[in-house]
TrEMBL record:
GO terms for cellular component: plasma membrane
Residue ranges of the TM segments: 17-36
PANTHER family assigned: SEC TRANSLOCON ACCESSORY COMPLEX SUBUNIT YAJC
Official protein name in the record: Preprotein translocase subunit YajC
InterPro entries referenced in this protein's UniProt entry, alphabetically: Preprotein_translocase_YajC
Organism the protein comes from: Paenibacillus mangrovi
Record localization: Cell membrane
Membrane topology: Single-pass membrane protein
NCBIfam families for this protein: yajC
Main location: membrane
One Pfam family here: YajC
GO biological process: protein transport
UniProt family annotation: Belongs to the YajC family.
């Protein structure tokens, strides 16, 4: 009985490497298409929105503060919150624009 088990051929190791690598490649592909790629698209649209900001746009900050852009530079935005109050923010702290200067002029 022991002689039969010893006479059985050993499995080849070539197929086992492919069976180990294939699931890892599939998991990476799934993560790329479900997590990485959508995040890159979202970051690209955010950067284009921040680049398109101009004086007179109404925006909302990450903290939820609503205001109108009075001055804007490469990295600083001055928002008018009411008739008297002006606050300075980093450009990256802008969450989204609610309306642009062109839209508010046409109303």
């Amino acid at each position: 009985m022991f002689e039969l088990a010893a006479a059985a051929p050993a499995p080849s190791s070539g197929g086992s490497i492919v069976s180990l690598i294939l699931p890892l490649v599939l998991m990476f592909a799934i993560f790329y298409f479900l997590l990485i790629r959508p995040q890159q698209k979202k970051q690209k649209t955010r950067n284009s929105m921040l680049g398109a900001l101009k004086k007179g746009d109404k925006v909302v900050t990450i903290g939820g503060l609503h205001g109108t852009i009075m001055e804007i530079t490469d990295d600083i935005v001055v928002l008018r919150v009411n008739d008297v109050t002006k606050l300075t923010f980093d450009r990256n702290s802008i969450s989204h624009a609610t309306s642009s200067a062109a839209e508010s002029e046409s109303k």
